[in-house]
Records
---
Amino acid sequence: MCVENGHNYTVIEVYLKALKRRRYSPRTISTWRYPLTLFASFSAARSIDRLQDVSRDDLAAWRLNLIERGLTDASLEVFLRAVRNLFKWMEAEGMLFDNPAAALKMPKYERRLIPVPSEAELRRLLSQPNVTTPIGIRDRAIMEIGYCCALRREELARLTLRDPDFLQKSLRVMGKGSKERMLPLGDQAFKWLRRYVEDARPVLLARNAEIDALDVLWISVDGKPFGGQGISVMLKKYGREAKLSVNITPHSLRRACATHMLRNGAHPVQIQMLLGHATMCHLAQYLRLTITDIKKMHAQSKVGR
């Protein structure tokens, strides 16, 4: 029998489909598919026909195998986390009596500090679209919403006409794991989103009023849904035109929002709720950025010298 038709691969596919139903991004699912498939092959080579039979010793051998392959600590973490999350899901689904991956430790390493566009650079970026055109109004609205609400790319792309509440000046967002959160719209985000919905979107939609595009929020130049890939390309283009030092992506806007709010005194718990993170540990990279600012300010002011 072909290994890929075996029990382990079937369980992995069911797990990945469960992630898709919980609105995990295609990129995340694709990122996890490879290490899980590799783990299934590794298990088959050790004559493990069922994932339920994997032991702690098998996982230790898996970790050693990855290290011998020459994986970096960052890649090693992705591979181990993918397997740990798979077993956590199996445990929650009642497929396991004892989870062998419960104590699987992630490698500790110094994460690279990802640069974040400054507030001045964000203002320059937001001024790039030609807002005398429907496309320019749409692009400005996308950037304002992405920055104000700190949305992931898929969250931004999946917005529908039902999500903005202009009376309450809020936006409903469906995040990872189908977790819904209500976010406030700042004045600029509210202004440009409303202008887009009332003035620009009808013009774009009239160019090709497809049924499947009627409910989506963002419309392309030819009247079709404007998805995540289009948003990424658009942001990169405006980033180049603004001559920014940082590569602009939807996640750049998300990081910028969190970092700028922390720098201006927002409480970390408020940032956690805005970002839709389940725990505070994900805020580490933003806190490190602000601590870097404090150290720089401290050195410049020559305190204690």
---
Amino acid sequence: MIRPPEYVLGIQPYVPGKPIEELERELGISNSIKLASNENPVGPSPAAIRAIKESFADINRYPDGSGFYLKRALAEKLDVSDEEIILGNGSNELLDLAAKTFLKDGDEAVMATPSFVVYFMAVQSVGGKSIQVPLKNYTHDLSAMAVSITSATRMVFIANPNNPTGTINKKDEFESLMEKVPDNVLVVMDEAYYEYVSDHDYADSMKYLRSEKNILILRTFSKIYGLAGLRVGYGIAKKEILADMNRLRAPFNTSTIAQKAALAALSDDAHVSRSREVNSAGKEYLYRELSALGISFVPTEANFLYIPVEGSVALYERLLKMGVIIRPMGPSAVRVTIGLPEENRRFIEALKQ
């Protein structure tokens, strides 16, 4: 029987958060809540829903392979050119595409741990070597990551805010890192949660788009825009970097429905503001209630909380039986999405039990 290369066999398949339907089917329960996958509990923009309905009649046709209108709208919003935008089937596809484009067997990529597991998977899938640098105070240790760059390094991955801890890197430390990154290394800034950030000292990745440095900034419509089920994300980089990535990008990689929904969502500022407000209120509530229970947590700039706790898998399984889905992050931490008020209250009540 044919077998893949050894480096492929070394990849553990990604395990997503447990779906509500699966839990209720397995346990014979109902009215479950999911706080496992950092989705927007507010749901999608009403404008996006209208756009989705209006696009149904066109699904017999292939999508616009260039994503012209969505790219144009993003370019205008971000003050860049259309050629500096690339669309992806979620920003996850763009992580894979960047690795396929710029790494070869034996090349190194520097990343933090724990962070988004797909970085490691993307590097491993092309035979690259991941150099994993432990977090410091639950945050990317950019100084240590800079020291880890060698002549074999071709990429540096940074999640800002970090998933799963919700922490951010700030301007000065990011600028210090960028000064040390060689000109033949691509920095991939994963900013999936950047719309939730309230800290004014948040690192400014966009300023490097006009510098000599190589940077790819990834953002998504899956989080604050509430379109996780449609899989649409985007990247921002110099046109030369994206031209190379487009050599390997699959044809029609974002659907008609996804493009039209994202375009509508992009202009609904009221929906984004409400999503931020719901998240901020939920964060304050969880901070207060967890503190009252004597449970420590990592302050977050995203839409989830990282809670260090021994026996995380046992806790996860106990909460499942109460119809509350969270995410174990190894043996000694869980990650909990900030939900609607009633979902947050239910999580706290389940913890008390």
